[in-house]
Specification:
twelve-stranded antiparallel β-barrel, mainly beta, Lipocalin
């Protein structure tokens, strides 16, 4: 019954998005696939790459259409985005799965004592975005599930069977149990930019607050970009081609992380979280007409007392934009 209710809530949240898509056929729409994995740490030999902590993420994102009805009140005065908009509002929908696993090695399948529990998170998110030349405001509502319904164990088994020689054994005997999750997140980004001929550069500081039974935290960060025909980081783009180098740092003050602190209303595995966590990243982004590709290497600081001092992983993103 609980799972059926979750599905109904997800479908209800997605309905306004579908309606907005149908009404905004001339609005630029982007469909993208992002995969996060420590197997993408290409600066390491394949057998030396980690296969634990945040080990995998798959995210399908759709940008386009008018902002959802439940958030238009805080975006008064904005209109739906078009190809040449400088002040507008739009929506984003995302279906994703994240996987966290305990530490193990190829030669020793014994899981380290005090290691984090394995966990999966399957979710659907919808965002309302208010976009301006120098500012972006985004409000996101996320619904999802942990435990067996997240399908994390099945997903990892399928992936590991595809390349068993390079994958470590994993242990799902101690994992976060089923729990429906709700997250509300607000993020504000600013932009300061300049250019010299065809070379552009900008700085994008950001702040965010997240609250929910899965994750509660505050975040500050900054992203620096430079490149040829540098695209705007959030407004619709019409340039035929661009190339950008990206770097950034961020810090998070965490009050709750279900994947480390355990289930909310029942006993189970838990290790606690570090209150302050940082991340750094470097990447490259390439766009040609409607197509885009990006690669980012990320390293996170220690997440819990017995966790690794640093955990590297990487993202690969491919996207296509319609009605440019």
């Amino acid at each position: 019954m609980i799972r059926r209710a979750i599905v109904v809530m997800m479908l209800a949240m997605a309905a306004p998005q579908r309606a907005a898509i149908a009404q905004s056929a001339s609005t630029p729409r982007t469909l993208s696939l992002r995969t996060d994995n420590d197997a993408f740490d290409f600066w390491m030999l394949p057998w030396n790459r980690p296969d634990d902590e945040y080990t995998s993420g798959v995210h399908i994102t759709y940008d386009g259409g008018d902002a959802p009805w439940w958030a238009r009140g805080f975006m008064r005065g904005d209109v739906a985005c078009t190809a040449h908009s400088h002040t507008c509002r739009t929506a984003r929908a995302e279906l994703g799965q994240d996987i966290y696993t305990r530490d193990a090695t190829l030669s020793d399948t014994t899981v380290i004592d005090r290691s984090r529990p394995s966990a999966g998170w399957l979710y659907l998110a919808q965002s309302a975005r208010s976009l301006h030349d120098d500012r972006s405001d985004e409000l996101t509502l996320t619904l999802g599930v942990t435990g067996s319904p997240s399908l994390a164990r099945l997903t990892q088994r399928i992936a590991h069977n595809a390349a068993p020689a390079f994958n470590r054994p994993t242990d799902w005997s101690r994992q976060i149990d089923f729990e429906p999750g709700v997250i509300v997140r607000y993020e504000e980004r600013r932009r300061a930019a300049g250019e010299i001929g065809a070379i552009g550069f900008d700085a994008v500081p950001r702040g965010a607050a997240t609250i929910g039974n899965v994750l509660t935290m505050a975040e500050l960060g900054v992203e620096l970009r430079a490149g040829w025909h540098l695209p705007h980081p959030w407004l619709p783009q019409t340039d035929a081609a661009s190339l950008a180098l990206v770097g950034g740092v961020s810090g998070r003050a965490i009050a709750r992380n279900l994947f480390l602190d355990g289930n909310t209303f029942r006993d189970g595995p838990r290790v606690g979280h570090e209150p302050l966590v940082g991340s750094g990243e470097l990447g490259v982004e390439l766009r040609y007409r409607a197509l885009s590709l990006a690669y980012r290497a990320v390293s996170d600081t220690r997440q819990y007392a017995a966790g690794p001092k640093w955990h590297p992983w990487a993202s690969m993103v491919a996207g296509v934009t319609f009605d440019r």
